[in-house]
């Protein structure tokens, strides 16, 4: 899925939630890019660079914990001066990339259906859509995406 300003890079089965979030956002005329990372290592450096250079906001989403896929992406972006911007970016007046990682929280999640666990972990489609709206400075619109 291709859009503007925001790219979501999903890793693993969570990509389906990312796609659902993109459809929810389309109902508000927000068109985002959704990419499937396919594998954690080795990183698809070309894909990550492309997403970072074509978008203002990059959100990684995974059903992993701190130190996982999102951390690898963050580390790569910081080593290549993409994350915080570089002198070259400042000269061209390109804003720095905003990066957010969505992953499992560091707390116990009760047993339940996969959908219930994603909801409890804050990784459901509505949570992903809400993160995008927050990053776009439109948090009040996230209230439209209620839990069923």
TrEMBL record:
- Identify the keywords attached in UniProt to this record, alphabetized: Isoprene biosynthesis, Magnesium, Metal-binding, Thiamine biosynthesis, Thiamine pyrophosphate, Transferase
Q: Which cofactor does it need?
A: Mg(2+)
Any one GO biological process = terpenoid biosynthetic process
Gene3D superfamilies xref list: 3.40.50.920
SUPFAM superfamilies registered for this protein in UniProt: TK C-terminal domain-like (SSF52922)
Among InterPro entries, the record links this protein to: Dxylulose-5-P_synthase, Transketo_C/PFOR_II, Transketolase_C
Q: Where is the Transketolase C-terminal domain?
A: 2-128
Say which domain of life the source belongs to.
Eukaryota
One Pfam family named in its UniProt record: Transketolase_C
* Keyword set includes RNA-binding: no
Q: Which GO terms describe its molecular function?
A: 1-deoxy-D-xylulose-5-phosphate synthase activity; metal ion binding
Spell out the subunit comment.
Answer: Homodimer.
Name of this protein: Probable 1-deoxy-D-xylulose-5-phosphate synthase 2, chloroplastic
Species for this entry: Herrania umbratica
Q: What is the phylogenetic placement of the source species in the record?
A: Eukaryota, Viridiplantae, Streptophyta, Embryophyta, Tracheophyta
Q: Which gene encodes it?
A: LOC110409440
């Amino acid at each position: 899925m291709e859009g503007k300003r925001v790219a979501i890079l999903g890793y693993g089965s969570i990509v389906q939630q990312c796609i659902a979030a993109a459809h929810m956002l389309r109902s508000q005329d927000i068109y985002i890019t959704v990419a499937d990372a396919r594998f954690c290592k080795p990183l698809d450096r070309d894909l990550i660079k492309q997403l970072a250079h074509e978008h203002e906001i990059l959100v990684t989403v995974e059903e992993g914990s701190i130190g996982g896929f999102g951390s690898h992406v963050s580390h790569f972006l910081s080593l290549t001066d993409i994350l915080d911007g570089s002198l070259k970016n400042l000269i061209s007046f390109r804003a720095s990339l905003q990066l957010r990682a969505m992953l499992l929280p560091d707390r116990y999640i009760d047993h339940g259906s996969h959908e219930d666990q994603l909801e409890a972990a804050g990784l459901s489609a509505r949570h992903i859509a809400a993160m995008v709206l927050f990053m776009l400075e439109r948090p009040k619109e996230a209230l439209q995406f209620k839990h069923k």
